[in-house]
Please model this.
Amino acid sequence: MASSKYDVLGIGNAIVDVIAFTEDDFLLSHDLAKGSMRLIDEAQAEKLYQSMGPATIISGGSAANTVVGVASLGGSGSFIGKVRNDTLGQAFTHDIRAIGVHFETKPADKGLATARSFILVTPDGERTMNTFLGACLYLGPDDIDPATVEASEISYFEGYLWDPEDAKIAFRKAASIAHAAGRKVALTLSDSFCVDRYRDEFRALITDCTIDILLANEHELKSLYTTSDFDSAVDALRNEGPMAVVTRSAAGSVVVDRNGVQAIPAQPIDRLVDTTGAGDLFASGFLLGHARGFDHRDAARLGAIAAAEIIQHIGARPEARLRDLAAESGITIS
Amino acid sequence: MASSKYDVLGIGNAIVDVIAFTEDDFLLSHDLAKGSMRLIDEAQAEKLYQSMGPATIISGGSAANTVVGVASLGGSGSFIGKVRNDTLGQAFTHDIRAIGVHFETKPADKGLATARSFILVTPDGERTMNTFLGACLYLGPDDIDPATVEASEISYFEGYLWDPEDAKIAFRKAASIAHAAGRKVALTLSDSFCVDRYRDEFRALITDCTIDILLANEHELKSLYTTSDFDSAVDALRNEGPMAVVTRSAAGSVVVDRNGVQAIPAQPIDRLVDTTGAGDLFASGFLLGHARGFDHRDAARLGAIAAAEIIQHIGARPEARLRDLAAESGITIS
Model:
């Protein structure tokens, strides 16, 4: 196996976030489930945008946020995802490349606009996402560059990728190339409603060993095993085999593998502003740590450090150099 | 004189900010004067954007920020400025209307794109702005709606408006309508380099009584009177007549009128992040206070409260309800 050029390759929806602070009443009156992600069409997007408050535009996309976090931590990242060649697609492309992530997926030159997620942040810092997938629907197997997959220590997929139809085929192609090259495949379950939509498929990916590393939060894991009891869900997961890390917000994270279950505390913060990207950035640290051979504890600590930075400001892209924050906590990325 | 429908009408460049954190070395290597605003053309904009880091997109524009601050403080604001009917122009329009500001200037349907300012924020929180004026160059006297000017207690102009050629004619038209309706006219000097470009014109506006209220920071005031001594600049200003408020960053502000000079302290902050909009938001509080008949001290305090919020996060648009922050400090806006 050749040495890897990229620590983590992210494959996911290329999305620009449009983020506004709002009150809980707004969620209620628009019938939105707090903390979830729902898909909306262009007309719904237009209507929601008209009714929401002043917004900040920041590049997003779950797996894209993760590889940007990997780069900010001092690792090397690559990304595959589809934008349109429009103003927001150019902004997405600029932002991900500007931090040093390899991103060469050809943009769509016609059809739907670059995807955007309208994110409503309530006073408790929780985010509720409304995503218009737009050009993400055009991602397909031809966008998977074998050389990039082969050169990546971990290929990381977001569960949200099951929403655009052809992206699944792209996923299977990439996973098969990665395993043939002796690399690892990781998946995040993304959102408990997403797990509801694709539970059987996600379960199959785990039991047929397509997935080597599973990332989830506790709600998603409970949804996967249709239980309200966290310990039962963890037991079910252990029986199925892949290494997994489960985040529990302020309660920290739990790493699960055949050797047992290990709990790692969250990183303390000064002020919770916006939880957008908390899971994505935890994944940055955990996957980079894993790619670099860290033990579970240090990999999860690195995840906690990255997540702590992201929830103290608007948006899911780091404002500080995460590598420096890791060094302050005694974790050196060379 | 009829009662006013708007506390403050802002007339200025309609700009979207593209903000990135950077190191001081970047300013040096690109020959940029820290803390200033320079004008760039489309080719320079493209080149700078390619070399700068990941960015956050937030509506901006000096006078636009000010009227948004007025609305957030619980006052009523109106704005006149020119965008193109493109993606960023739509974002600008959404954001200013979403906070309740009256904005009905017809967007340009051809020609240059919506203006953008590439803002580089250094670790000391200072911002250095590079502005492509784009569609702002199309603002002219036909965009001045007399009814809106007549209905506004204060018409507020930014010095930056002297850069696009026809905007000056628009300014003179609006100032004349305002005075005929018994309203006040205010001007901010905007930037010391801007004062360098238009010193004689700005001096003439003061001495011929076109300006009733002048806003400036200490650098701009010193540039106006070509002196390095703050007290000499204040003396020169007092001899010329208009009421003025001069901001001095962490040292607070000074209100100058024929009765004397009064110093008001800055509002304490936890953490300086990005000074973009500090002067604009000070103007929000000061002008709203003045429109509501506050004494100089309370008007300047209201300005200090608004400025303190804006410098603790990225961008020049409030993230908190400024009216609530003012109430916490004992200032009620009814």
About this structure: Chain A touches chain B at residues 20-21, 49-50, 52-59, 68, 86-88, 91, 94-96, 98-99, 313-315, 317, 319 (CB under 8 Å).
